[in-house]
Design goal:
Radius of gyration: 17 Å
Structural class: alpha+beta
CATH architecture: Alpha-Beta Complex
Helix content: 25-40%
Largest sheet: 5 strands, antiparallel
Shape: globular
CATH topology: Cyclic Phosphodiesterase, Chain: A
Number of strands: 9
Strand order of the largest sheet: 2-6-5-4-7
Number of helices: 4
CATH class: Alpha Beta
Distance between the termini: 32 Å
Number of domains: 1
Length: 186
C-alpha cells in the first residue's frame, strides 16, 4: 500500500521564495529534511496507507468537494510543532479562511464515508518548511527564534487557490509528492 494525502499546492512564486529562504534558515536550524520547492503544499487530509481500490473510490467522490469558488489565502508567520527546544516541524502558517475550512471539512466527510478514520486534532493549515530536528545537542533558543523571525525575507502574503489535489507519497524520492489527480474549483 502507498501513502496518500489531499492538499493544495503552493503557487510557484511563493514556493520559489520559500526555497531561497530555506538556504539561510538551514544555517541556523539543524533540520534533516527541507521541503523541496515543488513539494510545498497545504494539507487538507493526510490519509497514510490506503488500499488502491479505495483511492479509486475516493477519486470518484472528491469532485463533490470542489464546488467552491476560487479564493485567496494569506500566509501568516512561522510556527513549530513538537518540543520547543527541538521542534519536529517548522512551518509557515496560513490565515484562518472560511472557504478553506469548508473545503477541508467536506474532504474529511468524503474520506470518512469510504472508511478513513478522522484525525481528532484541530485543523492547523500550514506549509511545512522543514522536519526532523537533527541535533539533540543544539537547541532552538528564544534568541535564535527571534533572529529567524526578524530576518524573514519579503514573501508573497497571499495566493489564489484554484484547485486541490490527491497526492501520492514517494518517501525515497525528491520531490516526494506526486499529484495523482487535480480537482479544480469552480
Amino acid at each position: 500500500m502507498s501513502h496518500y494525502f489531499i492538499g493544495i499546492q503552493v503557487k510557484p512564486e511563493l514556493a520559489k521564495q520559500l526555497s531561497v529562504w530555506q538556504t539561510s534558515l538551514s544555517n541556523q536550524l539543524p533540520y534533516k529534511q527541507w521541503t523541496s520547492r515543488t513539494d510545498f503544499h497545504i494539507t487538507l487530509v493526510f490519509l497514510g496507507d490506503v488500499d488502491e481500490n479505495l483511492i479509486q473510490t475516493l477519486q470518484s467522490k472528491l469532485p463533490f468537494a470542489a464546488t467552491y469558488s476560487i479564493f485567496d489565502i494569506k500566509r501568516t508567520t512561522l510556527g513549530t510543532f513538537g518540543n520547543k527546544q527541538h521542534p519536529r516541524v517548522l512551518w509557515m502558517g496560513i490565515e484562518n479562511n472560511p472557504v478553506l475550512n469548508q473545503i477541508q471539512r467536506k474532504v474529511v466527510q468524503i474520506c470518512e464515508s469510504i472508511g478513513y478514520n478522522k484525525d481528532n486534532r484541530a485543523y492547523t493549515p500550514h506549509i511545512t518548511i522543514a522536519k526532523k530536528w537533527a541535533k539533540q545537542d543544539k537547541f532552538l533558543t528564544e534568541k535564535i527564534w527571534n533572529d529567524v523571525l526578524n530576518n524573514m525575507p519579503d514573501l508573497d502574503d497571499k495566493f489564489k487557490v484554484d484547485a486541490f489535489h490527491l497526492y501520492k507519497v514517494h518517501p525515497a524520492s525528491n520531490p516526494k509528492y506526486e499529484i495523482v489527480q487535480s480537482f479544480p474549483l469552480s
